[in-house]
Amino acid sequence: MRVDNIIAKLAAVGADLSTRNAIKMALSLISEDEELTDQIYVEIKNKAYKEDFAKVPVEKRAVFIPQCLRNVKECPAEFGEYGWECTKCGKCVIGDIIEHGEKLGYKQFYIVPGGSLVKKILKEKVPKGEIKAALGIACWPELAEANEKLSILKIPLQAVPLLRAGCINTLVDIERVKAALEIGLKQENKSPAFSTDVNPQPTP
């Protein structure tokens, strides 16, 4: 995997990998594409927070799903207080994600239109102890921003990128989502998508 190789290369030269800006500067120094900054940052944070995420009971893990994965033309879901309320109609992958999560014991799924609703949910539920970890699906820049914000709240995040970004009818690797849901559980799949050669400490 190219990103893993770049991360290993950055680590070998002692580059600061703690922030997005630091990674961007490090990439320029080794003549790599700075557009990979968010991807590298997210993959490093996935590795750094995986152990903490694994320790959180599944009922305390919130799963944030972007509304762009919906089949907008045929979706029968209605919009509620915390986002779209999936009916598991089978017309998109969201129902499959929720069903797999429910089998594992997950209780909190939020199909959200954007960051403002995510902030509202976190503001309401983190202080009450209802959310102690999060799994997010989004494009690379949004996942990088989420990592920065959740690290302040000390909420470990596992992030899964969209395969095709955009505002509607996006795509995600359903197997990678399932593997992320299973982190810390007996049936966890050992996926190379979560493997890197470095284990940096998460920023406070």
Automatic annotation (TrEMBL):
<dbReference type="InterPro" id="IPR002829">
    <property type="entry name" value="DUF116"/>
</dbReference>
<protein>
    <submittedName>
        <fullName>DUF116 domain-containing protein</fullName>
    </submittedName>
</protein>
<dbReference type="Pfam" id="PF01976">
    <property type="entry name" value="DUF116"/>
</dbReference>
